[in-house]
Amino acid sequence: MILANTYHLALRPGDETVAKLGGLHAFMSWDRPILTDSGGFQVFSLADRCKMSEKGVVFSSHIDGRRFDLTPETAMSIQQNLGADVAMCLDHCPKLPADKKTIAEAVERTIRWARRCRDAHQRPDQALFAITQGASHKDLREQCAEELVAMDFPGYAVGGVSVGEDREHVHEALKVSTPKLPLNKPRYLMGVGRPEDLLIAIEHGIDMFDCVWPTRNGRNASCMTFEGTVRLRNAVHKLDPRPLEESCPCIACRQYSRAFLRHMFMSGEMTGPILATIHNLTFLQRLMEHVRFAIMEGRYLAFSRDLLAKWAP
Asked: Is 288 helix (H, G, I), strand (E, B) or coil?
């Protein structure tokens, strides 16, 4: 599944333009699942360019400064135009650390906005997921989950993580959120992608993830393997004829050596980041394949603990 960004696509090329070109699947020649976020994360990431009210969020475009209004209703209209398979409710994602009163207000607004999104959403061929908030406060997470589950969405996300808190708070949020979410519907952890964190999230019952980790690390010469991280700029790889990982089927490992990949990075060639990104994406797919087999064979905890111990600093 590929994630596409509602805020950025609405600004450029425009969601109506994408709709006229057949929706995202046709526009990007991708015949597999697509998920669009709601634009709510940009309220956090572009906080200096937006103002929030109960109605929604008013942005000053980072491209040309023009006004862009994002409400629960417009978030639904944009995502329906984009035509993704999964759309997300607009939520309020507060920056952490924050006091409990601020987080409680974000929870209440998230619940109210989810109801407005549900009422505005009209595409039966598009699943609408709600997003839970509440930081690591057990009572707020439970309240948010319970009220959203009562609205009977097709899937649920754990939001409000990876926004400035430490990893212990992420794990705590998972511990208190997932028991309140239905077992028979997808549970999606937003913005988390380190392999170590994925293994822990899966233990808590998470099914889906999204993160820039594979591409960001790939661009910065950092590649993950089942033996640990390979940092391609390190001089130790200058004369290394081995692939990144012997068992990996990706093109970077099948055709190129660590020495060549390091040379690409040291020379500033785009081939390096492209191949490293392909490898990281392949690694995550292989990791998930191993995870599924371990779950089916009843040995997930042992599998997870072994890898976490191997990857520990």
From this structure: helix
